[in-house]
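Researcher: Please predict.
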Amino acid sequence: MTTDGFTTCLWFDDQAEEAANFYVSLFKDSGVSRILRNTESAHGSTGSVLTVEFTANGQKFVALNGGPEFKFNEAVSFQIDCADQKEVDHYWEALVEGGGEHGPCGWLKDRFGVSWQVTPARLIELISDPDQRKADRALKAMLSMGKLDIAALEKAYAGE
């Protein structure tokens, strides 16, 4: 391989630049590195955006304006590991801004249709506890939530 790791390609109809700028605005260690525009031989109009290479939270992406043939679905999602409730709240609201939708169990879709899991690190600790009763209570609480609430998960875990 010629580079470290992988680059995720996200297929958009015609919102590649808008999406890249949105993701770059949300995450640290982010930036747009290159915009490739269509030429006369490409499928889009000359000068329109074909691809946008960007980094979001240190991860490499290419946003492609490929047309309306393909749509995002929940089979692929991006999980955001959040340190605390403040981060959960921030990403939960910011990602649905402008037309996204909240979903169950910490899942949501942004306005481009990309699925995200906004997950507090504490959840994984709670549901993987060796005490199966505690873990099950936390899991059951998580399954009843939209946005994940760490305090409520802790209470369920403790049996309160």
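Model: DSSP finds five helices and eight strands in the chain.
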